[in-house]
Write a structure and sequence with these properties.
Helix content: 40-55%
Radius of gyration: 25 Å
Number of domains: 2
Order of helices and strands: HHHEEHH
Oligomer: single chain
Largest sheet: 2 strands, antiparallel
Number of strands: 2
Number of helices: 5
Strand order of the largest sheet: 1-2
Length: 170
């Protein structure tokens, strides 16, 4: 009888400790803002670097923020890329690049047309308030304001960037 009670007690103690450990781990991750469904910052950086390497080898790498999530979903899976036949992205590359693009882009509004050109993108226009943009907007024109665009650095601007602002009436 005494051994049976001891076994039950040990079993109960083990169960309680296991549940507490699981809850403690979950609460610890939650309190630090970690979401197991979200990619880590390291994976997002790796995805951005791979995006620059893969896409920036043919054209300026466009920041994820400038196009919608829906646009990126189509672009990185379509082998007919603006009239050029591409090899499909290897699964490993896709699994690193897609979380980066998905995390830093935004969905379009219901009923909004999916933009496939920068000039059609509401997000691109929001990121360029008051800037007089050439028409049509081409990827090559980005360098006139963003000298480090090839490295996905769209924060650094040319010293005379104010010349591109639309004059406002007094």
């Amino acid at each position: 009888m005494k051994q049976r009670w001891q076994r039950r007690w040990l079993w109960s103690l083990g169960l309680v400790l296991s549940v507490c450990s699981i809850l403690g781990w979950g609460l610890g991750a939650w309190s630090q803002g970690a979401d197991p469904a979200q990619p880590s910052l390291g994976r997002l950086r790796l995805g951005a670097e791979l995006y620059v390497q893969r896409c920036g080898s043919c054209h300026l790498p466009v920041p994820a923020q400038t196009l919608s999530t829906d646009t990126w979903r189509v672009l990185i899976q379509d082998i007919n890329h603006y009239g050029i036949q591409l090899q499909p992205l290897p699964k490993l590359d896709f699994n690193l690049i897609w979380p980066y693009l998905r995390t830093y882009s935004r969905p379009i509004r219901p009923g909004e047309t999916v933009p496939y050109r920068l000039g059609q993108s509401r997000f691109f226009r929001i990121l360029h308030p008051g800037v007089e943009l050439s028409q049509p907007i081409g990827l090559g024109s980005c360098k006139s304001c963003h000298p480090a665009a090839q490295q996905l650095d769209y924060i650094t601007l040319v010293p005379n960037w104010q010349q591109f602002l639309t004059p406002t009436a007094p």
